[in-house]
Amino acid sequence: MRYLSMRGNEVWRISSQPNCFSARVLKARYYIFTDILSAKVGSYPSFTWRSICSARELIADGLLWRVGNGASINIWDDPWLPGRGNSRVLAQKIMPNWTTELVHTIVDEATATRIFSIPLAGCNSEDLLVWKFEGSGEYTVKSKYRVLTTENLQTLRIEVTCPLCKVGSEDSDHLMWSCGILQYVWAALKITIPLVGNLSCCKDRFVKTFSAAEEQQKHFIVISIWSLWYRINKMIHKGVKLSLQELLGFIKGYEHELRFIQETNNLSSRSMAKEIWRPPKTGVIKINFDATFKSSDKCAITAALARNSSGDIIGAETYLFEDVVDAFMVEARACERALIFAGMMGLRHLIMEGNSLTVIKSVKKQENDKLIVRPIINHITLLETQFDNVTYRFAPRLANEAAHILAIEGRRFQRFGFWVEGVTDAVKEKAMNDRLDWFQSSYSTF
Ligand SMILES: [Zn+2]
């Protein structure tokens, strides 16, 4: 209804300014010998012309000739009586001269009053088409909309049909539920419509359908209504034809893009969360292990860093492996060495964290496979028995950084064994940053 009122804007402009460009183009093509209000739709109307013709009926009821010299007005056919009612004269007799008595003899009392209320302009002023529902005489979408939605709706008997299916009347029930085009789109998108009694209204059925829908279907419902509304406007204002195939493609593409963005966001926030080191629960000690390996000297240094639930370092060890040929073997050795270290520290509940996914996977699997590190893994399994509880977790590089730095420092200072006097400043600093990052991340989730 709103955009028909807007279309009315165009009809208004064309009829009130017959010399404007669009008015002249339309006149040349569709109504050379008449005016816009009496022109026929014709056999090959453009979309613009067709919608102008349908809006014309709406606006025609609000058009009024403001009497000037009377030259343009046919007093028997044209609307020129001011006031809200019918603006045309309902009289059969044609009289040659207008006098007060004459007016009273051909029209009823009320019409006569309306005629005499017309402010007379000078002889030279031209007759002008005005919009009677607005004091300014200018057509406004708002005033037409107001006219349509108040009691005038009944008196004007305007049927505003849905521009999509051209069957139903264009109201919210229709546009959000019963429109055939919308239902077709939903069927194509496999939207499940729950069975409810026929008695319930469209709004109820919409709410039921929406709340019962899965996440993806909810997306489809919202996007389809929004894009149909967008297409209607494009159709009305730009004359762009609706292609259902293209519309379905658009809806699916949009939904896909939306889901992709959501997944990427989730993924990055999840991996962000994983990127930081987290302290274990109270009573549990977390051991981060890592290794450095230089193929030039065939030396590998493993590191194990034990921290409690407050993130404090409670022990550290580096260990030197000589004659190593395989980096992967070193990772398994680092895990094995960390368990030996934990045993020596007398720990009971452990979380073992390393950044070699293969090692973590193999120790979790505990089965006989053809891994070259299988003997080491089997030894790890054996070592586990001395603890009450051991959990293995994969840590991304950044979350395991403190253990990595410890291994590098061990190589740099050639220090192997327990770090009884405490770790180097670099490791301390990293451990402190781990704690800070964890604090920050737990605050930001609130
Ligand atoms: Zn419809």
Automatic annotation (TrEMBL):
InterPro entries linked: RNase_H-like_dom_plant, RNase_H-like_EbsB-rel, RNaseH-like_sf, RNaseH_domain, RNaseH_sf
SUPFAM superfamilies: Ribonuclease H-like
Domain of life where this protein originates: Eukaryota
Stretches assigned to the RNase H type-1 domain: 288-407
Pfam families: RVT_3 (PF13456)
Gene3D superfamilies per the UniProt record, alphabetical: Ribonuclease H-like superfamily/Ribonuclease H
Protein name in the entry: RNase H type-1 domain-containing protein
Organism: Gossypium hirsutum
